[in-house]
Amino acid sequence: MTKQGWYKSGEDLITQMKTLQLPENQLAVWYLGQAGIVLKYGDKLYCIDPYLRESKARSFEPPFDASEAVFFDYIFCTHNHTDHLDEVALKAINEAGADTKYIVPAPHVHVLQDLGIAAEQIIAAKAGEKFTLGDISVEPVPAAHEEFSYDAEGNHEHLGFIIRTPAGTVYHSGDTIEWETMTEDLSGKGIDIMCLPINGSDWKRKKHNIIGNLDAREAADIADTCGADLLIPLHFDLFRHNGENPAHLTDYMYHDHPGHKYHIMVPGELFIYLK
Questions:
Q1: Distance of alpha carbon 141 from its chain centroid, rounded?
Q2: Could you say which of 15, 21, 31, 38 has the lowest number of CB atoms within 10 Å?
Q3: How many domains does the chain divide into?
Q4: pTM score above 0.85
């Protein structure tokens, strides 16, 4: 049975992710709600910011139990906030015997080690230091949440990731506002798909220490300025106290960026990208 709020979930979603086969020129994208997405290129699954724990604050249930998520080859966490680095979920995945590799900002490696995840399974990501994972390359880039934050060694605590595959290049920003040189820094990177938050910020949320993000207008302008082929909005649907109506993005794209592709995904949806 499909869980409430999900297009596809549970064993149906897991089976689809594990068995889907694509030609070399296509890239699969699944949406897990909030900032969570899954990419598939070839036979590898790359998951970014999965938030899988049960919580009364959620507007809809997790797609499946975290202990069932042992099929992810790689899990990226953009920063150490619960809805991006879900300690409960990562611990359950690890204890279920997964061979998953974890990519986290260097300042947060200790968080995974404290969960019992072996050092050889963890990749410490640093802004500007590219690395490869099989057939893909990864370029960590800074994120301003709501400002750049560093550890004692000068490593960024919040990152986005540019993931380059032969079928297309995806940028997942993590949580971020627009910093002064953001579009300058990202233009020319050959980004095909930009995954950006659109929940914005306001005084009421700041009063409750809820850190802000890009809003729909800012995300649209950034994707257009950077020459991205497709914009996928994130971070608008899971928490009622920190969400946004994605129709605002639709309206702005229609009036200010006509002809620019965007796609508002529903949780559990599969999107096939052909460059």
A1: 13
A2: 21
A3: 1
A4: yes
